[in-house]
Amino acid sequence: MSAPPPAGGPVNIVGAGIVGLSVAWALASRGRAVRVFDAQPPGAGASFGNSGSLSSGSVVPLAVPGAARAGLKMLGSPDAPLVVRRRYLLRALPWLRQFVRVSDEATVRQVADALLAILSPTLPAWEAVLGAIDARDLLAHTGQLHVYASRQALAADGFAWRLRADLGVRSEALDRDGLLARQPGLGPAYTAGMFLPEAAAITDPHGLCLRLAQALRQRGAEFIQAPVDALGADGGLQAAGRTFPAQACVLAAGAWSMDLLRPLGLRVPLESQRGYHLQRSSLEVAPGEPLRGPVVTGDTKVFIVPMRAGVRCGGTVEFAGLRADPGERRFALLQASFERAFPQAGEAGAAGQTRWMGHRPCLPDTLPVLGPLPGLPALWAAFGHGHLGLTMSAVTGQWLAEAICGRAVPELARFGIQRPSLGARRAA
Ligand SMILES: Cc1cc2nc3c(=O)[nH]c(=O)nc-3n(C[C@H](O)[C@H](O)[C@H](O)COP(=O)(O)OP(=O)(O)OC[C@H]3O[C@@H](n4cnc5c(N)ncnc54)[C@H](O)[C@@H]3O)c2cc1C
Predict the structure, then answer these.
(1) How many A from CA of 389 to the centre of ligand 1?
(2) Which of 12, 19, 313, 363 is the pocket-test mutation for ligand 1 (most atoms within 8 Å of CB)?
(3) If you measure from the C-alpha of residue 345 to the centroid of ligand 1, how many angstroms do you get, rounded to a whole number?
(4) How far is CA 174 from the centre of its chain?
(5) Structure pTM?
(6) 201 pLDDT above the threshold of 90
(7) Rounded to whole angstroms, how far apart are CA atoms 166 and 182?
(8) 393 alpha carbon to ligand 1 midpoint, in Å?
C-alpha cells in the first residue's frame, strides 16, 4: 500500500457499530480526520437492537466457577437460555474450551478487575459524549432490578453478587414487597431480588448510533458505505476497489472482525453469541403500570427494558455462527420470560410487536481486545465487547483515541491481544 501520510493524518475506522462510531467520535473530538467504513448504514449490527443498559456494575465475567457445569446442563435442552446448535458444536469447541480454562477463581478475579477499570468510568464518559452530541435526552437514570424466584435462587448467584460487592458495586437486596415497590405489576413468580442503583440506560440504542453519525458528519467525518476487503499493516485499507491510506486504522467490525484479521496471520477465538429481542409497542406491563426501568430475570437472564418505542425484551445466547437463520424457539423463550415476569400485561403493545436477532462479538474471557496489534503498530483493535458493547464503547473510544494520539494509556495493557486469558495465536 502507498506511503502513510504524516503523523496526525486521517484514521480509518472499520465498522459503524457503536464501538466504531464511539472511537471515531473520540478521535474527531481531538481534531483528527476520520473515515468510517461499513457496508451497512450506521448502527445496523449488534448495536441496532441491544437492551440499552449501561451496566457499569457488570464486573462479573461470563466464565465463573461452575459456569461450565451449568452450561453443559443447558446443552441438553433446546429451550435453555444458552444453546449451541448441534451443527455448530465443533466450530464452537475452541471457544468453549478456552471459556472453561478461564473460569477458575484466580482468573475470574483478574478479569473482574479489568472489567471494573473499563466499566467504572461508564456514566461520566457517556454523559460527556451525549452532552457533546446534544443527545442527553437518550439517557435514563433507571437503576437495574434483578428478580429471582426465591432467596435460594438468588443465593445460587451468590458468587457474582459477592464479587460485585467486593469490587465496590452498590446493590440493595429486596424481598417481594421491595420488588413491587420498585416495579408494580411484577408477577408472583418472583419473590426476591437485587437492585443496582447506579446502572443507567439508553432509551434508543439505534437512535444513539444515528445521532453519533450525524454529529460526526457535522465534524467533517467521511462515511464510506462499502465493506473493507483487506487491511494493510501501514493503516491503509482496501475498499470499493480503492486503497485508502491513513496514519492508523481501527478494526471495530464486531463479530466479523476475524474475517479481516485472519489474512494477517492472527487467530482469536471470537464467536458470535446470537441474541434476540421482541419489542412491544407499549410501555405498559400491567393495567395502568408502565415499566419503570430494566428488569432482569434471574432464571432466564432476559432484560425487559423500557425503550422510547415500547418495552423491549432481549437476551438469550445461541452459538450458531454468523449465517444461520434466527431460531423460532429463542423468540418463544423471550415471550415466555416476559409473560412470567408480567402476567397482567395482556394485549397492550402485543399487536405492534417487532422481532430481531443480532451478533454479540464475544471472547471467552469476556474482555474486548483493545490496542495496537503485535507487529502491526498502525493497526488498532477495538472488538469483542460481547454483552457490554454499548456500556463500554464511550470509554473504549476515549482510551483508543488518546493512545492513537500518542498519549500513554496504561489501562490498555490488560486488554491486549496477547493477554494469556484470551488464547490468541499466530497462524503457522
Ligand atoms: C440481544 C442483545 C442485547 C444486548 N444488550 C446490551 C446491553 O444492554 N448493554 C450493552 O452494553 N450491550 C448490550 N449488547 C451488546 C452490544 O450490542 C454489542 O456488544 C455492541 O453492539 C457491539 O458493537 P460493535 O460496534 O462492536 O458491533 P456491531 O454493532 O455489530 O458493528 C459492527 C459493524 O461492523 C460492520 N462490518 C463487518 N464487517 C465489515 C467489513 N469487512 N468492513 C466494514 N464494516 C464491517 C458490520 O456491518 C457492523 O455494522 C447486547 C447485544 C444483544 C445481541
Answers:
(1) 7
(2) 19
(3) 30
(4) 27
(5) 0.96
(6) yes
(7) 25
(8) 10
Q: 17: CA distance to ligand 1 center in Å?
A: 6
- Tell whether 37 is covered by a domain: yes
> Whose C-alpha lies nearest to ligand 1, atom 50?
50
CB 400 within 8 A of CB 26: yes
Tens-place pLDDT, residues 251-282: 999 999 999 999 999 989 999 999 999 999 99
Give the count of domains, the chain. 1
CA distance 175 to 193: 6
Return the ∠ at Cα 390 (arms to 72 and 12), rounded to 5°: 110
Q: Is residue 108 part of a domain?
A: yes
Per-residue confidence (pLDDT) for residue 6, from 0 to 100: 41
Instruction: Read off the pLDDT of residues 220-242 as tens digits, 9 standing for 90 and up.
Output: 999 999 999 999 999 999 999 99
- Protein residue closest via CA to atom 1 of ligand 1: 275
Compute, in angstroms, the gap from residue 251 CA to the centroid of ligand 1. Answer: 13
How many Cβ atoms sit within 10 Å of the Cβ of residue 301?
16
Average pLDDT over the chain, rounded to whole?
Answer: 93
Residues whose CB falls within 8 Å of the CB of residue 269, separated by 6 or more in sequence, listed in order? 94, 95, 98, 363, 364, 422, 423, 424
Ligand 1 proximal residues by C-beta, below 6 Å: 14-20, 37-40, 44-47, 50-53, 55, 227-228, 252-256, 259-260, 275-277, 303, 314-315, 358-361, 383, 385-391
Going from the Cα of 391 to the center of ligand 1, the distance in angstroms, rounded, reads 12
Judge whether 76 lies within some domain.
no
- Could you give the CA distance from residue 119 to residue 368 in angstroms, rounded to a whole number? 12
Q: How much is the pLDDT for 406?
A: 95
Provide the residue range defining the domain that includes 348. 11-69+104-426
Q: What is the CATH number of the domain that holds 312?
A: 3.50.50.60
Atom of ligand 1 nearest to the CA of 228: 42
Q: Tell me, yes or no, whether 248 lies in a domain.
A: yes
